[in-house]
Every structure is written in structure tokens, then in C-alpha cells.
Amino acid sequence: MPDLDPRFDELLRRLGEISDLQRAVGLLVWDQETKMPPLGAPARAEQLTTLARLGHDRATAPELGSLLEELREFEESSEPESFEASVVRVARRDYEKRRRVPSELRAEMTRAGSLGYGAWLEAREAADYEILLPHLEHRLALTQEYVACHEPFDDPYDPLLDDHERGMLTSDVAATFARLKEVLVPLVAGIEEPVDDSCLHGDFAPERQREFSLEMLSRWGMDDQAWRLDDTVHPFALSLSESDIRLTTRFDDDNLNGILSCLHEFGHGIYERQVDGRYFRTPLQEGTSSSFHESQSRLWENVVGRRLSTWSFFYPRLQEAFPHQLAGVALDEFHRALNRVAPGAIRVDADEVTYSLHIVLRFELEREMLSGAVTPADLPEAFDAKIREYLGVQPANVVEGVLQDVHWSDSNFGYFPTYALGNVISVQLWERATSELGDLDSEFERGEFGTLREWLREHVHRWGSVFEPADLLQRVVGGSLDAEPYLAYLRAKVEALAPR
Ligand code: ZN
Questions:
Q1: Which of 68, 258, 331, 494 has its CA 20 to 30 A from that of 108?
Q2: 265 is catalytic
């Protein structure tokens, strides 16, 4: 029996240590973003660097490599989705990819990234792109060096994309994005008059928003034995194990965006919460890719969280929480406001219909920078030109233009596309779920969300990282990445919002 092999136990012990170090990094980051007093920053940077180095040393140790080589037979002998075969396969892949990059290059990338982040904050403060420019040039050169470590490949963008989407090819993303552009650019240009969403703005006490969000999320499946919700500046979700899920959000006192951000982070949290507990402390323990993760957050935030049936249950409760603000606002009016479509320059404020175009243009610019077709010096102009072409808006200044995202301050290329791919996958999964489960709206109207949650557990969540994203998608929906369901969903949304 392979699972009695002491070498496999030794592998689990080593992988468990690597996982513990990674989770400890996660906890320090969570604390830094939610609790730490500002003067803790310099010491925290040292602590994070030490833990990250220990983790990297263990993850690239030659002893781990020889162990994985000895256990290669596991990948062939047992069922491909068995625990043993999956652990060995995913661990070996991670190991081989990490070993390609010299540790000096990795350290320099980390250092340049953190200096770049400081320069980005400064550049935003001064509204001066020149402050960031030399950092971006240096970091881009390092990214090109990093890419070269992974030769051969079909496209220099492939290794960067693969860091977030195991096995996905740039050509597939480019084809999907070309289709999004073809449909969405004219769809957005045709929107004449955005709906009035003034009911979402006003005076909304953060404490009440928090209480309401917790009530909503507990209906969806959050409980205080395994979850927390804390305040932060830039919301995120993180898990320390499948039974320790940390969500963060930001409640502003003049709008309700914080509630929607809770719904988004819940989607990330429930994915980690429902991974098979047996995968804990192995490389299988997390969601399989960034876009699959994002498909879960978008599904709960947008497909479920902006749905009329969902709010026909929750809206009376929201009105109770904010009687002065919402008593005179009908459910239909509130629902239309939640689904407002209006092009703007800022990605994080974008609605569902325009959002993916913000991503498409960033993907195109990343590829052009990598190939040298666009230099960092050209970037502000190239960015504005694309946003004018795709969304018909001109950013007021560099802060609202090229300096709006943190992702390029440390050249984290390859990550942006996963946001739009998550949108596409979310609707593919929703279509499959409702074709199997039937209409879920009557359950949502009664405040019941367990049928959908359990379906996602069974088909997506429990598998953790056992399957590569494309294989998981194939298993669940019986096909590959397909933009059409998502585009049909958006067309229907725009139609329903047309002036009446
Ligand atoms: Zn997300």
C-alpha cells in the first residue's frame, strides 16, 4: 500500500512545515492590515522577510526534490485524483517551478517590489508618475529575467500567468478577452442614461452595516466558531486553516459598499472553508487558482448578491437597520441602483458590465511592456489611450489613470487577468448549478442559500488544488473557458436597466 510508505510520511512532514511557515506569514500580514499600530511596520518587515526566507529554503531544499523524485511512482500507480498522487504531483510541480529561479533574483524582486510600493504611494501623493518610473523600469527588467528562467514557452507572458493559473496559456486568455472586447465595448457605448443610485449614498452608520452584514453572511453560511470579520483599508480574505477564515472589509459612513465587499470576501472564505479537511498542511489545501477563487467571490457578490430574489429577503432587514435612509425606497428601486452600469476611470469602482474592460486593457499593456512595445515611460499615455478607446472616458489625472492600482508598483504581472476570468467562470458555474438544481430564486426569497453552497462544496470547493483550473472547469461544466454565458448575463442586465 503506497500510503504506508514512510517516505510519503516524510514528504507530508516536510510539506506541513512549509505550509505552517506560509500560514504564519499570512497571520503576520493579517495582523499588519487589521490590528498593528503604525510604528510596528519596520519590525514586521523583518519578521516577514525571515519567515518568507525560511519557507523558501524549505520549499527548495534538495532533500525535498529527491524525495519527490523517489515518490514519482505514486503519480502513476494510484488514481490521479487520489490523495497521494495529487500531493506528489502538485508538490513536485511547485518544487520544480521554484527551483528554476535563483534565490538572489527572488530576493531582489521582493526588495524592488517593496521599494516600488513606497514609491507608488509617494507618486500618488504628489500626482507625479516620474517618481515611480525608475522603479517600474528596474522591476520590469527583473520580471523579464524571471520570465527567462522558465524557457521554453510559447509566449513570454505564460510563466507569469502560470504563477496564478496553473497550466493556463496566454493565447487562451487573449482569445477570451478579444471576445469580451468585441461585445462589451459597443454595449457600454450604447448606455444612454445610467440609473439613479442616490439611495445607496447618505448617512449609514458603520456599526449597523457591520451587524447587517454579519446577519446576511450567517444566512449564507458564516459562523463565529470558524470565521472572523475585521476592519481594514483594502479588503481581503485569508485562511489559516479550513476552520479559521478571516474576512476583512471597510465600512464607510456615507455609502453601502462595505456590505458588498463583505459578500465578495465571503465567496473567497467559503471556498477555503469547504476544502476537504484532509488536505490541511499540504499543497492541496487552497482553492485551485486565482480565477477560480475570484469566480467564487464574484458569484456570491454579483450573481447572488445583486439578485432581486436575494434582496426580497434581505431588503426589509436592511430597511429596519436604516429606517430614515431607506423607508421610502422601494425594493425595485434599491435593486436597480445596486445594478447600475456607468463607465468610469477607476477599476475598483467599476460595475459588472464595465469591469472586465478595465482588466482587458491592463492585460494588453502588461504584454506590451513585457515585449518592449510599450516602455514604462510611455505607459501613462498608452493607459489613457486604451481607457478612452474601450470605455469612452478620460482619467482626470495620473492618480485616476495609470497610478490607480497597486499591482504595477511591484510588477505583479499575470494577476490582473484572473479578475475577469473569474467573472467568466462565475457565470459558467451558475448556469451549470441552476441547470442541475433548478430555479433557486424561491429558496433565496426565503433566505435559504444552502442548496447552492452545498453544490459548490461538492463540485468545486472540496477538491482544493487537486485539479488544475482547466480540468476542474471541464469536470464541473463539461467544457472549457467560455465567455458566452457571461456575455449573455451582462446583455440581459443592461436590457433590464434600460430607461422605462
Ligand atoms: Zn476577490
A1: 68
A2: yes
